[in-house]
């Protein structure tokens, strides 16, 4: 297990997903990595029980992208919501995710130019010893710039230069972006007398059943994506995989004050958990002494909070354990 966390279990359903990362060697190249244990190829999806019929309509009109969704929540109430974004805003939004080789080349150019410049200045002032100190300072600043760049594009740079999707960062950044959708769901909840559990269940049902399950490519044209769709793109495209859907659910739920969420990473899969007291049969983890009930956004299985897929259960209980990443 990882950190101050432990798992309480019960036997449940099934779903699937893959977790991707990137590795930096001589150049930044995309490769499939399923940490912490390679060789896990994924697991089969199951439609699960219930869920009703879900619908989606994705279209562009008048310079605006629109997405309309219909789904059934866990109280068997039919819910319909819409989400829109202007094409101009969408283009600006997407510019903040992914990277191109030209971006890395620009960072390298900065590094080389400043190495030469600072070396010449330092040697002239204090000799070779000062020059070496100047080079160390440039390298330090380069690493900070590189890390900040990737963080700004939705990635986290870890040990051995392994680059992974920065799920906590993506969720936090997208709370304001998906707030209109959260407000639309709140309006439905207020109008139909939903309690908090029904509201949370509506968010989960939306991502599980109305968003199609599909794994994003690691690269789209010359753009390295990390295999994750940004939440707004997922909503306006109508699909996503486990980490993409977790990002969507986390960003929507983050609009409500007091919501405490964590991401939960297991080999080849990603899900989340919400801070609340577990009910009978709920699967939950403990983080910093508090219980967090697990939520399985991947779909298409229709699984209430506290229920996860059988394959997920096996991974959670596996020898590699799981990693918790606080969202808020």
Overview of the molecule:
It is globular, with a radius of gyration of 22 Å. The chain has 328 residues and is of the alpha+beta class. The strands form five sheets. The protein has a six-stranded antiparallel sheet with strand order 1-15-16-14-13-17. A four-stranded antiparallel sheet has the order 3-2-8-7. It has helices at residues 87-94, 101-126, 128-152, 167-174, 179-192, 196-210, 231-237, 242-253, 310-316, and strands at 7-8, 21-24, 28-31, 55-61, 64-72, 78-86, 155-157, 162-165, 212-213, 219-220, 223-224, 239-240, 261-266, 269-275, 284-287, 290-295, 323-326. The protein has nine helices and 17 strands. Helix 4 crosses helix 8 and helix 7 (231-237) packs across helix 8 (242-253). It folds into two domains: 7-53 and 156-326, no CATH class; 101-152. The model is unreliable at 1-5 and 8-49 (pLDDT under 50). Helix content is 37%, strand content 23%.
Brief write-up:
The chain has 328 residues and is an alpha+beta fold. The chain is built from 9 helices and 17 strands.
